[in-house]
Amino acid sequence: MVLKKKQIKFLVGSAVIVLAIAYLIVTGISKTSVYYMTVSELLAKGESIYGEGVRVSGKVVNGSIERNPASSRVDFKITDDYKDIKVRYVGIVPDLFRDGREVIVEGKIDPGGLFEAATLLTSCPSKYEPEVKN
Asked: What span, in angstroms and rounded, lies between the C-alpha atoms of 51 and 12?
């Protein structure tokens, strides 16, 4: 079977489109499927992690939240019950953000140990309890 010029162009064009879509899918999945680390795992990486974008999971340390309403900045510490780091986040804070809450922060840690978060996510409580009315 001999293919005509138009058929060859169509097949080549189709192959290019399919490969481009596959490339976009693979790169999209690899960028969004970033594993998050615990605080101890982050600190164990040492200097090699400075300036790298990472996700870190931890619990907000009780009494560590310091809000600056004028600049929408909030400073707080997160812990994995072994080690803790100071986090700075500028932006809208989720409603569920409070002491003791599990959070995931995404950003970069500097050599001074400050984690500059670009994203702050809170996890929903696993068990909702009804409000007690007196």
From this structure: 42
CATH 2.40.50.140 fits 36-122, yes or no: yes
- pTM for this model (two decimals): 0.67
Domain locations along the chain: 1-33, 36-122
Q: What CA–CA distances, in Å, run from 52 to 38, 104, 117, 124?
A: 15, 16, 12, 27
Nearest one of 42, 76, 73 to 59, comparing CA atoms? 76
Mean pLDDT by 10 residues, the chain (134 residues): 79 92 80 73 85 88 89 92 93 89 91 90 66 59
H/E element, 16: helix 5-32
